[in-house]
Amino acid sequence: MSSPHLRTYAYRAQNHPNAAARLLLETVVRKKSNLSVSVDVTSADDFLAIIDAVGPYVCLIKTHIDIIEDFTPGLIQKLQALSQKHDFLIFEDRKFADIGNTVALQYSSGVYKIASWAHITNAHTVPGPSIITGLASVGLPLGRGLLLLAEMSSNGSLATGSYTEEAARMARANPNFVMGFIAQRRMETVGLTTCETAGEDDFLVLAPGVGLESKGDAMGQQYRTPREVILKSGCDIIIVGRGVYGSPKNLDIQEVRNQAGRYRTAGWEAYEERVLS
Ligand code: BMP
């Protein structure tokens, strides 16, 4: 059997053990899009306007819900209405990082009640496997999926080497709830000992740090092109923020739409080249 990154999204959708991963892969296939837009703006109006503009081009909208200054629970209903209108999933980039009991409360409760609306969320592996147990106790009955942060796109990240390998092992031990990784490359052989071979697990790799023009920002972010990320590194989904919406101070919605279309095409062409060539 070929490695997961050489199989089609459609094939992977039929065989994935995690419900949220199946929904995501089905959406990717229906919309011919492996683009996730990260909507990191602080005004609810800008947030909704960007999502409405990029909605037709994306499989997944990534949120940082706690940066919205005028958040109300009604915003979640509007986000869900846009998710229905444009057929995309929602990923709250919460980066949980505490003991199991605490993350279960943070995921289910508080102001944001993330588990009730986010199909996908993510966690650091610093606390060890109990973070997965805690989040799964809330998310698995709801059909949610978890991504582990195995690597980061920022310059000087400590998520390298044995840390990344341990994250891969934690995922392999929990394939029903852990649907994949935030990482910069394909992960199926990472952390295997010399006597082990990659199993049938299919972990999706969602990669942030993607830009067509810029190579980085002034705060350590590093960008690669969709082609480098999907074709050369074997990641599955590109996550693009400012490359699509530019500066929130000068939002130009028509330009946001154009950029989303451009990234969608670049990501999809790189996938076709990877799988069909
Ligand atoms: P931008 O494309 O504007 O640089 O945004 C990237 C987004 O991805 C941000 O929301 C950031 O929090 C997230 N992210 C990242 O950039 N690198 C990582 O390793 C993990 C992330 O979640």
TrEMBL record:
One Gene Ontology MF term: orotate phosphoribosyltransferase activity
Reactions catalysed, as given in the entry: orotidine 5'-phosphate + H(+) = UMP + CO2
Keyword Lyase found: yes
SMART domains for this protein: OMPdecase
SUPFAM superfamilies registered for this protein in UniProt: Ribulose-phoshate binding barrel (SSF51366)
UniProt keywords, alphabetically: Decarboxylase, Lyase, Pyrimidine biosynthesis
Family statement drawn from the similarity comment of this UniProt entry: Belongs to the OMP decarboxylase family.
PANTHER family reported in the protein's UniProt record: OROTATE PHOSPHORIBOSYLTRANSFERASE (PTHR19278), URIDINE 5'-MONOPHOSPHATE SYNTHASE (PTHR19278:SF9)
Protein name per UniProt: Orotidine 5'-phosphate decarboxylase
Organism: Coniophora puteana (strain RWD-64-598) (Brown rot fungus)
